[in-house]
Amino acid sequence: MTNTCIASFDPGVTTGAIAFVFTDHPSTVSAEDIPVADGQVDAATLARRFEIMKPDIAIIERVGSMPGQGVSSTFKFGQAYGTLIGVVAALKIPVNFVTPGKWKRHFGLSADKEESRARALQLWPARAELFARKKDHGRAEAALIARFAAETIVREGGH
């Protein structure tokens, strides 16, 4: 498939992000915070964004609860994660999951989110405004997940 649109997610409510990359134009990226309303993922706005971008495939980072995370924040995170999966499924977009370790190894990154932001700035210097702030690490990671998918999953015909 040529010019595949890849939508990717770094899940979360406060730092979550979505990115779009087209395989024919890997030097361009769109990245934004996940839409939130009243402290939850805004599924309707997210679905409208998908209707505009028309992704051929979605890549969601496979995550779980983190040690030391409180019950309330774990529940909120799980709810956001489930909403992302639900929107993708409802729109019948093929989905792949990737662990943080797998996509980060592909780019030679550690768990340090600043490394991800720096790599995104290197790969997309013309879109530096997307990753300019320290808190934009979610956008950077979503963009890198899309790039990982373009360089591995889509290239190998895995969607």
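Next protein, fold it too.
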Amino acid sequence: MINIKDKQERANALKTFFIGGTFIMCIWIGFPYLIHKFVDSYLVFLGAKPVRWLGAILNCLGYALAVWCVMLFIKEGKGTPLPFAHPKKLVIKGPYRFVRNPMVLGTVLFLFGNSVLLGSVGIFIYAVIIFIIMHLFVLIEEGALTRRFGDEYVSYLQKTPRWLPKF
């Protein structure tokens, strides 16, 4: 939990709320909406309505997975996904037992679900681009996590796959 009396923790909590919230809303809602509104009219994709229900299911699963991961960062890691308030402890519970980057997978699953739900090629391409960008970020982040958490993280790297869950 956040120590309200600590000025730095309060400032980090506010930054997390405003910067993180804005970032998430842009990535998850804003850009997909703009793509669907202005790009998809030029593209044709998945017109069958039953397939769109699959998109809604993927959307919900992705959202739930990403939120679960953020909550684990707060509760178990004593931090947030944002760099100025990163977790103080390595989180290897919940979905992190099966894959190293479930939060990214949740985000991409949510966006992919939106592409199917809305019949949007543009959002599908956007989801692929977000995955590529996040993959590059993860490659850089792994070095930082190794420095921050040392042998505990190296052991985790060796046991847990980066993208495809191992149950």
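About the second fold: The chain has a mean pLDDT of 81.
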